[in-house]
Amino acid sequence: MQDLDLMLEVARMYYERDMTQQEIADKIYVSRSRVSRMIKKARALGLVEIIIKPSFENHVSLEKMLMDRFGLKKILVAYSENSGIQEEFQGVCNMGASYLAEILDNHSVLAVSKGKTVATSVESLKPLRTCPDMKVVQLTGTLETASNPNIDEMYIAQRVATLLGCKLKRLLVPYLMDDEESKRVICKHGATMDVIRQGREVTTYISGVDTLLYWVDHLDEKDVNALMQQGAVGCIWGYFFDQNGRIIDSPLYDRMIIPERSLFTTAETRICIACDRFKARALLGALRGGMCNVLITSSKIASQLLALDDNDER
Q1: Structural contact between residues 166 and 136, judged by C-beta atoms closer than 8 angstroms
Q2: What is the average pLDDT value for the chain, to the nearest integer?
Q3: Is the full-model pTM beyond 0.85?
Q4: Cβ-defined contacts of 12-20 (< 8 Å, 24+)
């Protein structure tokens, strides 16, 4: 019993009082190696239980399942099982910010999409270095009906360029033109042509995913109905796609200031970040279509994606 009492006391000093093994050895007049053995034995006997609280660290098992399922370049899953909506959202955005800070360098040509999740990720960005030779390129025009300019692509691009101390190429045009001729005219403008050309050099992008519901406020009813009839479930960079990730042909593209479709194959790192559960079907389509090869999301949505994919296979 005396040995057990001593072992418990050593464990308390080490784990609760944050004493070093040498400090404990000096206090109880034994060798440091004996203290080390007592600490290990206390854990082996179950007197000490170490619990790593998941909070928002990567949910490794879900990451592995998603990686095996979709063969992506990188998957980051923020643990969110016991979290509220705002906590879950901030955890995913923090993870997105950390990943961006890790991968961006002077050789990067970055594009950022509109949206609250991308905007918050950029606001949370703490760059490891400035990248004066890096470029940020705005790939789409501006949605004039956007209710919050702080989540517009131009504002977010300006913010990330400021944080990284790099160049920004802005696209000072509307997202959706009135007709095809208006688009042709504006795309012949020298400044617009220059940004479009540099958009072909994008190496990395980070984007959210839109559902068709988002576009109800920005498109005519007949255009929305036509997309629905073709099975559209989501949209990335202005391109609408179905649940299998097939990009839907639409005359809308002839009026939209959006990047060339080849972006989905030429950009080396295609990040999709999402934490809205109602977007799971759209996110699944984006994964299946290869529009992203890096996924950053929460464990709740990760589980939802796997369940949807399993149901579709049955």
Answers
A1: yes
A2: 89
A3: no
A4: 14/39, 15/48
